[in-house]
Write the structure tokens for this entry.
Amino acid sequence: MKRVPEPELMVGPEQAEAYAGPHLDSAYWLFLQCFRKFFHDLVPEDAILDLGCGPAAIPLRLARLFPNCEIHGIDGAPQMLEQGRQAVRREGLEHRVQLIHGILPHRIFLPRSRYEMIISNSFLHHLVDPMVLWNALHAYGRPKAAILIVDLVRPTSEEQARVVVDNYMPDAPLQLRDDMMLSLCAGFTLDEVTSQLEEAGLAGNLCVKMVSPCQFAVYGKLNREL
Ligand SMILES: C[S@@+](CC[C@H](N)C(=O)[O-])C[C@H]1O[C@@H](n2cnc3c(N)ncnc32)[C@H](O)[C@@H]1O
């Protein structure tokens, strides 16, 4: 199936509410499992950067897991950031979780100029130009920064995409089911991701691996001089 890009920013208030609800818990759980599996001896002690952080579900989980670390999230959708900020306040984590408005690839002024770890979940498929994500790793990562990116793989056909939505979100609100369908059609294949990593000069350092029947992870450490 040919890729059909979807709108980059998720500016609908109903989208932000749906993402902040409980229906994506299994996706967040999978992200944390990947973290544990690929970086089992890593204990971040300074700051992690989350690209396309949405309503901060993953930053909050990481903040609970790593009490000595700050998490900074970037998103271009104010509605998503507002949901995230409310959740951060509810948990009293304002001192360690900061959410910053910014649209990549624009240069964004952040609390750190470079990060010990950069993460991203379900963000790559939103980008018209996927190199925006890979270039951001170069722009914001320290040498040897840990990288964990998880995203959807584009199925071979629309029918296949519908099967994935039915399997993963049988009871989710229509908004989320529709969003997942669009996201699957906007996703990249493993071959495409591998080519992107080669183009970005990251193929030697980052691995691509399927982590569920419909998601892949890109993980590893940057290896470059500043
Ligand atoms: C599918 S959501 C994923 C949110 C979050 N990572 C999660 O797992 O819940 C993708 C997010 O990326 C944001 N986004 C898309 N393109 C962006 C860009 N160019 N710059 C910044 N944020 C962007 C959207 O606004 C949206 O909140």
Observations:
- The longest strand covers residues 141-152.
- The chain is about 40% helix and 20% strand.
- Residues 25-38 form the longest helix (14 residues).
- Residues 8-10, 19, 52-54, 57-58, 74-77, 80, 103-104, 121-123, 126-127 surround S-adenosylmethionine (CB under 6 Å).
